[in-house]
Amino acid sequence: MSETAASETKRETRPFEAEVSRLLAMMVHSVYSNRDVFLRELVSNAADACEKLRQKALSDPALAVESGSLAITITADPAARRLTIADNGIGMDHDELVDNLGTIARSGTRAFVESLEEGADSNLIGRFGVGFYSAFMVAGRVEVVSRKAGAAEAWRWTSDGKGSFAVEPADPAAAPERGTRVVLDLLDDAEDYATEATIERIVTAHSAHVPVPIALVLEGGLAEKTLTDGGALWRKAKSAVTPEEYRAFYGHVGHAFDEPALTLHYRAEGRTEYSVLLFVPSEKPFDLFDPERRNRIKLYVRRVFVTEDAAILPPFLRFVRGVIDSEDLPLNISREMLQKNAVLDLIGKGVTNRLLSELAKLAESDKPAFEKIWTAFGPVLKEGLYEDPERRDALFEIVRFRTTKGTMRSLKDYVADLRPNQTEIYYALGADEKTILASPQLEGCRARGVEVLLLADPVDAFWVRTALGYDGKPFRSVTQGSAALDAIPRAEEAASTEAASDAAVATLGARLKQVLGDAVSEVRPSTRLVDSPVCLVAPEFGPDRHLERLLAGREGPEARKAAPVLELNPGHPIVAALAARAAQGGEAAAKVDETAPVLLGLAHVLEGDLPQDPAGFGKALSRLIADALA
Ligand SMILES: Nc1ncnc2c1ncn2[C@@H]1O[C@H](COP(=O)(O)OP(=O)(O)OP(=O)(O)O)[C@@H](O)[C@H]1O
């Protein structure tokens, strides 16, 4: 059988996985603002492949490569409208070609399709981990010829991006000795990408400082021109690096197009030596709340890429991107060693502390830059308040809050503005700010000018429970326990309604408790109400009402264990009238019994919940209305 015949029989055509197909259709059929991104993505894949080879050679000496021999070559052929990106990295075998370039959908595929549908720019593709497909923005046909390091056979993958791709054996003599060659037949309107000036412009802007050298060859012209030398930017002195170089490097390690909001570049010397070049993005990655909460820091050992899987930084800093290069770790560090290693621990601690102190500094020195970080990553940083008690104090200097007094308020601001006699830091939890602001429990604080932190992130319910306080002031939920508001003077005098006497309210409370039974743990007068007649609060030592609600959502209604306290506003006309009837006793007090379920139901409704017994509530309310109308 001739070689062509053999390859014919081994040629297989496969459909793209459905999500991938959708993604490709969107890439091909829309007009995109920035197609340059494809080159950065392919170069980035080529660089990753070189680094993977260097890493694999650490445990498999047969794969060892001479230092300095790894390279990326971009070949442009303007006459043929063809662009080739070749690397001599790890390469792909048959199955890897099939899986990686077409049949395995990754979580980013769907996420990217959805964000495109919502109008996102295609240049964000790299962030979703599906960068290869951006080749189809500029090419009508893509060919990938690859030979896995150490393998004899090579494979060719081809596609026009329209539903399917083909894989077949490639002639070993014409395939790369090792690594991958991606050949793009450029579309009519993309021929510019085969010109020297365009390629140089894109590589300089977006791929400078990938840690593998990049050369450009022009068919029928330029023999070979080095575009970048593959030097490790993070090892240079800070003074020798320009902002453009930092930005380009961030684009490479972060797969990002946004501006980094914070760049941290330093070399640590002491018990262990390492270089750090880290970036805090200004925009959220799509998988910020993935349950895995993975770190994306690239760990190098003396310039050799080792892994992206080491959990060097705590999960609450998982949005940080960049490189840490250690002088002291062994090059052949194993997975087990990565899990538990004294040097890595030391590096992790050092870098975490440094990051937190830089964030605290930025919060003071450049408020707009910090606000961007906080808006994108505040809820993630707050996870640290809960998970990392050792770092809590450092994080307290960084956290910012929306409060009843404004946005981006620090705890320091809060404490500086305490009202006379105020000894606690008040907060209100809820599903969103609007609901929180509407809650009756805030009324008393509002009337006294007491600032309240509005906590609407799910993680808030957890950290406030474990944090002891800030600057000696405990945190106190406005919906929990008895509010110590009495001692704080009111900012404005309450409108003078005839408040019920203490004794009458006490009698009313006792009567209501008797009627409502176990549905409430206590009925008592309130200092936290101004306009509303009633509200519910959690008992002193039970979980906050909102936390209970969150847990009930997750674990079912039985998670709501503690019966709430029903608080009465003695200054409210309804309460005053009922208190008078309760004090009168006899026939007059019977009205109190009828009203009790309505009051309790109303308190639930004011929290945004259903009454516990909607039917009973409805009946009692209807009776009251009927009486009122009679
Ligand atoms: N030049 C290459 N050499 C070896 N493997 C490659 C090469 N290009 C792509 N691959 C493989 O194909 C996979 C898919 O590439 P793709 O660009 O879509 O995503 P990614 O590289 O994982 O993420 P990102 O887009 O963020 O770079 C890669 O993870 C890699 O395994």
From TrEMBL:
It comes from Prosthecomicrobium pneumaticum. Its main location: cytoplasm. Residues 1-335 are annotated as: A. This is Chaperone protein HtpG. It is found in: Cytoplasm. Belongs to the heat shock protein 90 family. It comes from the Bacteria. Residues 34-190 form the Histidine kinase/HSP90-like ATPase domain. HAMAP family: HSP90 (MF_00505). Homodimer. CDD domains: HATPase_Hsp90-like. One of its GO terms (cellular component) is cytoplasm. GO terms for molecular function: ATP binding; ATP hydrolysis activity; ATP-dependent protein folding chaperone; unfolded protein binding. PANTHER family: HEAT SHOCK PROTEIN 90 FAMILY MEMBER. Residues 550-630 are annotated as: C. ATP binds at residues 41, 45, 87, 92, 100, 107-108, 180, 335. InterPro entries: HATPase_C_sf (IPR036890), HATPase_dom (IPR003594), Heat_shock_protein_90_CS (IPR019805), HSP90_C (IPR037196), Hsp90_fam (IPR001404), Hsp90_N (IPR020575), Ribosomal_Su5_D2-typ_SF (IPR020568). Keywords: ATP-binding, Chaperone, Cytoplasm, Nucleotide-binding, Stress response. Molecular chaperone. Has ATPase activity.
